Fold this sequence. Notes:
The structure holds two protein chains of two kinds. By secondary structure, chain A is α/β, with parallel strands linked by helices. Chain A contains ten helices and 21 strands. Chain A has helices at 16-27, 65-71, 128-137, 147-161, 186-198, 242-252, 303-311, 400-405, 453-472, 537-556; strands at residues 9-12, 32-35, 97-98, 163-164, 178-179, 205-206, 256-259, 262-270, 275-283, 289-293, 296-299, 340-346, 352-355, 362-364, 382-392, 409-420, 429-437, 443-448, 476-482, 513-514, 517-522. In chain A, strand 1 (9-12), helix 1 (16-27) and strand 2 form a beta-alpha-beta unit. By secondary structure, chain B is mainly α. Helices cover 55% and strands 3% of the residues of chain B. The interface between A and B is large, with 58 and 58 residues. Strand 13 (352-355) of chain A pairs antiparallel with strand 1 (171-175) of chain B, so a sheet runs across the interface.
Amino acid sequence: MAATDQFDAIVIGSGVSGGWAAKELTEKGLRVLMLDRGVMVEHGADYTYDGAPPYEIPARNMMPRPLVKSDYFIATHGYVSPSNQKFYNNDRLNPYAYDEGEKFYWIRPGAVGGKSLIWGRWSFRWGPEDFEANKRENIGGEWPIGYDDLAPWYDYVENYVGVSGSRENLPQLPDSQFQPPIPMNVAEKWVKERLEASSPGRKLIHTRLSNMTEDKPEQGRSKCQFRAQCGRGCSFGAYFSTQAVTLPAARATGLLTLRSDAVVSNLEYDPATKRVTGVRVVDANTKQAEIIPARLVFLCASAMASTQILMNSRIPGTGRSHFDNSGTLGRYVMDHIFRVDISGDIAGMTEYIEYGRRPGGVYIPRFRNVGGEEGIGFLRGYGYQGSAYRSPLPPEGFGASMKHGMRGYGPWKFGMGAFGECLPYEDNHVSLHPDKVDRFGIPQMRFNVTFRDNELKMMSDAQTEGERMLRAAGLTNVTSNRREHVPGDAIHEMGGARMGADPRQSVLNKWSQAHDAANLFVTDGAQMASISCVNPSLTFMALTARAADYAVKQLKAGAI
Amino acid sequence: MIDRRDALAGIVAMFGATLFAPIARAASVQVAVIDTGPPSSAVFTAGQRVLVSALSDRVIPTTDTPGAIAAEVPQFIEKLLADWARPEDKQPILAGLDAIEARSRRDYKVAAADATPEQQDALLTLAMNDQLPGGADFFDKFRQLVITGYYTSEIGITQEREYLPVPGKYDGAYPYANVTKVFSS
């Protein structure tokens, strides 16, 4: 179908990273084909339940249990509901494998825009320490870049995206280019004041969120309207998604071709020139396969899917990937560990209530192993995401007294959950299943990923410290719970094709460029050599914009 | 390697229209769509259906706002149990309805649906206090069904409570004195 020189670059995946790659490459003059395996979703027009009151959503927005069991048994861990069902992967149609006794929740989107439509939108910069820890502790692979390499690219993407938050001057959590923060409520201000006084050195700050508090008329986007229905798609364009932000920019150049329902099975490679020569694409509906030639490929299919595509690009007859001369492909897979939650009651302030439904909440940045702290029994750290709220009164008995008794709100409560950094372990790995293939003939991904002693100790500490801090701040009835820690559950899976300076120890160089193919860039979560404890998407955006800038310069210089 | 879809296709043809739904789903490459029509199969007998309606009305009666029947809560309950729940979810509800029915015939000599509202309240109270077989379990689950159906209905969301489609602002210290109804989410 495609003539040889129809496209200068192919971007695989249209999520957070793919959208940024398409925007940057087209704006620099390249003719770009962006592929996504999911269905088409157009901004606004295809947000079926945007603005619908709950009673107009099928099944009152509750997933039918038989449908969850048959088709969405993994997506259910990723907050699928009838109002956003078409944005999610169908787990029956697209299976994966893990060995007996192990678990991995591979929570995937199923539409153009990828996880950018359904993400949590918490947006943080990494700090200098995050890039330096691997080297200092001699764990995993050394990062070939530092904070200063990425800082200007954080500036660049933040100014375009619109990130709301407050300046705090914290070394472990550098400030972004912020729009004004979404306000704390009266009870959160109360907790902040008392927590910071009773636990010196700890901070409770505004959320940092890719939901805007100021309009961007030049992008046709409005600020957040406080509906808290982000996951259905937002016609106001108030939060960052491919559809609202990067896709319109790429289309405005006239240089973008977007193809949905396009499943990439592998990359074609010429060992003589050490270049990717094309992308093999299977039409999800017709199952017809074709090879589309490419001068430049940006692989942004998501951490695990990009790793799968790389592993399935094999030297004929060997089972070995063209891109795995280092032997590290598929290794050092990580996810944030979470499922420790702490909550408590706040007395008073019942003369106040929240008006509007706010996305986000408040954040307690990492305080462990920063500023020279030592001897706490584990490496790295964690942060907490939380909020204060008042719930409607619960039912008592039945009848008119119950009905009228529910016409009010209970006291303020505060709840928070910890997200912790997982260390990079060589044997936390993914591979292609030797026998099982999917409906496109692609070998299924097999996951062998577990949390280890350091992560579990960290979560114990998060539980103990969380309770202690809330009690010290004056909250009452402080309780905590700790549920099963399943890798993938945080939907922050990363690694598999890590970046590094040494081609014998890493898949990508410091420009997110494959050591084994100069015209291949992998700019999603696959490239991460460690994962910090903060939410990752903002860092993928910055790394993608940086890689696109480098790639086009190299292309124009004739080096690619 | 066997193509599972092709193997299934042959079996599917054998059963035709009587095909069991989960098998149909397995055979289809289509993504399942949530069925929002009437219940795909009857969950209740005619008598149970009348009783569910009567008890729903006792849990959330019409007061200064419409109650469960106006909000079509009984229809919601049957639809939910038919198509959104798993088979084992129905059992405590059906067993509880039977226990209430039996107690009504013993104490009042009438079907529970025909008992007076005061008698129905007495039967629900027995269930709530676990003085019927499976009573407390039934009461808890049945009340959940009624509450869920009511507060997600148009009446529940817009009349009993207040719905802000586009709040447009966030105020974290809004005077509670200004709140006349609970905000629907």
